[in-house]
Design goal:
6-stranded mixed beta sheet, rod-shaped, 37% strand, single chain, alpha/beta, 3-stranded antiparallel beta sheet
């Protein structure tokens, strides 16, 4: 049993290595920011740099009002000062900014304008994430006793769709574990660059949902008169209704049902 499991793990790692892995890359960009203080102008320029690389949504969540306040120091040199380390820069920007350099700074009355060269961390997703995204939602049950069959069926369906390599299948069964890992990355003790992985959880295009209408085994007795003997036979029955829903709109793209019956002894 152990040897079979070892072979399974070896095949799994080979498959993972064959696929293009996601990772963190660093992109250097130039940006400009304006504000009534030097620190505020730096914060504005950092937001612009992050927007160029990762989009406005991540920039908005990365440079918070607290981070802007930390930038706005009396020394008016903020992260550019020698007393501020690269780790502090990354911590204030949630790991998105690795470092930056002030290319120019000017003050016109009460208005500061700065130009920065910034090294921004970008989480490079794997190629599979660009496929049509789908998630298999645990099917509803018509009877509570069918939960074991439902779990096995959903797991098998998820595996088959993943192995087809036609979809990017998103997990919807282990959200607690995923959220726990992301929370660990945002805490202390993790390399600050790892925080670039935050905010990259994908949304799905299609939801695969359904109901287990019937899943069970029925038995019946058959009497053979010629030998005066009664035999019991069993029959497994499965009936499933399912839908494929467009997640953004709620439109039903496909709907059908599937039945299967098999005689046993």
């Amino acid at each position: 049993m152990l040897s079979r499991f070892t072979i399974f793990l070896c095949l799994l790692f080979v498959s993972l290595n064959a696929a293009q892995a996601a990772g963190i890359e660093f992109v250097t960009v130039q940006s400009e920011g304006t504000a009534t203080s030097l620190g505020g102008a730096i914060g504005s320029a950092l937001k612009e740099a992050i927007t160029q690389v990762n989009g406005a949504q991540l920039a908005a969540t990365t440079i918070s009002s607290e981070a802007m306040a930390a930038l706005d120091t009396e020394k008016e040199s903020s992260f550019a000062s020698a007393s501020v380390t690269a780790e502090q820069i990354a911590t204030q920007t949630k790991g998105t900014v690795r470092q930056y350099k002030i290319l120019s700074k000017t003050q016109d009355g009460k208005l500061w304008t700065v130009s920065l060269e910034t090294v921004v961390a970008k989480y490079a997703r794997s190629e599979q994430a660009d496929r049509l995204r789908a998630a298999v939602i645990p099917f509803r049950l018509s009877k509570p006793t069918q939960s074991g069959f439902r779990d096995a069926f959903v797991q098998d369906l998820t595996s088959q769709l993943t192995q087809s390599r036609k979809f990017a299948i998103l997990d919807r069964q282990y959200d607690t574990e995923q959220d726990g890992e992301l929370a660990r990355l945002s805490g202390t003790g993790s390399p600050v660059e790892e925080m670039a992985k935050l905010g990259n959880k994908l949304g799905t295009d299609l939801l695969i949902v359904g109901t287990i209408d019937d899943a069970g085994v029925s038995t019946r007795s058959v009497t053979i008169a010629s030998v005066n003997k009664t035999l019991e036979t069993s029959q497994s029955n499965v009936h499933i209704s399912y839908r494929v829903i467009d997640a953004p709109t709620g439109q039903i793209k496909f709907s059908d049902s599937w039945s299967h019956a098999q005689e046993g002894s």
